[in-house]
Amino acid sequence: MITTVVGNYPKIGTGTKTPNLRTAISRGDRGEMTPEQIQGVRAEVTAEVISDQIQAGIDLVTDGLIRWDDGQTYLARAISGFSFTGLIRYFDTNTYFRQPVVDGLLKWSAPITVADYEFAAANSSKPVKAVLTGPYTLARLSKDQKYHDQKKLVLDLAEVLNQEAKALQKAGATVIQFDEPAILKHKDEFPLFQEAMDRLTKGLKPTLALYTYFDDISGVYPAFLKLPFQIFGLDYVMGKANWDVVTEVPSDVSLGLGVVNARNTKMETEAEIGDAIKRIAPIVPSDRLYINPNCGLEFLPRETAYQKLVRMVEGAKKVAEVTA
To answer: What is the pTM assigned to this prediction?
Structure first.
């Protein structure tokens, strides 16, 4: 079993001595900090959350997406053809993002996340996975004023993000995760999604992960688990139906078991986590199992997120000890 996180991590730490990114950005808006100083704070916070994950016992960490405003803006800002409009709600969460607007042909011109990956890899004693929002979700959460053709828009974004993933591959990334929660809200477009995933993964050699959350894969199973990825992350908290739907997993792929609720401060017990791992054992052996929260942890206070990871790791260890 490998313990990991889905992607983002709380940006605001506990205590007065931790670097406060929110305060730094506010000071920057008032002209009291330079962009370089704010970037320095972002680097401090990133190093801190990587350390948090390692200290909690996580095997495969991320940079916490600390430099990202949200799952859309950070990437769209660097892709030619995007501008931005007002704030809209991110799915059914209490968070908002500035909606990207497609007003030109979408083109990749330079690496967007490579420097972030390299910083994380240099500041981690554990393996680091790179995380990217997938093309279907980025398209669905954007406002199209150029293409007026959903298929063309999604496929162009798949080409753009394929180039970004190849840049990460060149930089040494051995695991690249793509987040695609939106497809679970539009399952009728699964044929388009399949075509986009083929384009997205073309020529990529790292271990590729496809993560979904906020729902289950009923209606697109078993085809979903036959897409060109080696790891499939599923939400077993908000997508409880996955327990009944996913009755078999192909022998050449691994499952990301999302059993820790990243949207609720209530703490899972180590026993509850262990029971979930035992429940999935007849379907997926431990050597093909990733244990992780059901989605990104940024929705939680930093200390709560950390404690949930500690319990997740301990729950996984206890199962491993019993089954060894």
So the answer is: 0.95
Give the span between the Cα atoms of 322 and 289, in whole angstroms: 16
Token pair in block for residue 31? 């002209």
> If phi over 0 gives left and psi between -120 and 50 gives alpha, with beta otherwise, what is residue 31?
left
pLDDT over 90 (residue 116): yes
Q: Which two tokens stand for residue 181?
A: 């929660």
Task: Give residues with Cβ within 8 angstroms of 130, minimum separation 6.
Answer: 62, 113, 117, 165, 168, 173, 175, 176, 177
Q: Which of 138, 131, 101, 135 is nearest to 113 (CA)?
A: 131
Q: Does domain 2-17+57-323 have CATH number 3.20.20.210?
A: yes
Q: What pLDDT, on the 0 to 100 scale, is given for residue 47?
A: 95
Query: How far apart, in whole angstroms, are the C-alpha atoms of residue 55 and residue 124?
Result: 11
pLDDT, residue 15, reads 61
Domain ranges of the chain: 2-17+57-323
d(CA 210, CA 232): 5
Q: Give which of 309, 234, 298 is closest to 70, Cα–Cα.
A: 298
Q: What's the pLDDT at 42? A: 87
Tokens of 174: 């051995």
- Residue 91's SS3 state is coil
The SS3 call for residue 231 is strand
C-beta atoms surrounding 16 within 10 Å: 6
Q: What's the CA gap between 1 and 26, in Å, rounded? A: 41
Task: Give the chain's radius of gyration (CA, Å).
Answer: 19
Averaged pLDDT of the chain = 94
* Mean pLDDT of the region 270-275: 97
Can you read off the two tokens belonging to residue 307? Answer: 């404690």
Backbone angles phi, psi at 29, to 5 degrees: -60, -30
Q: How confident is the model at residue 240 (pLDDT cuts 50, 70, 90)?
A: very high
CA 113 to chain centre: 13
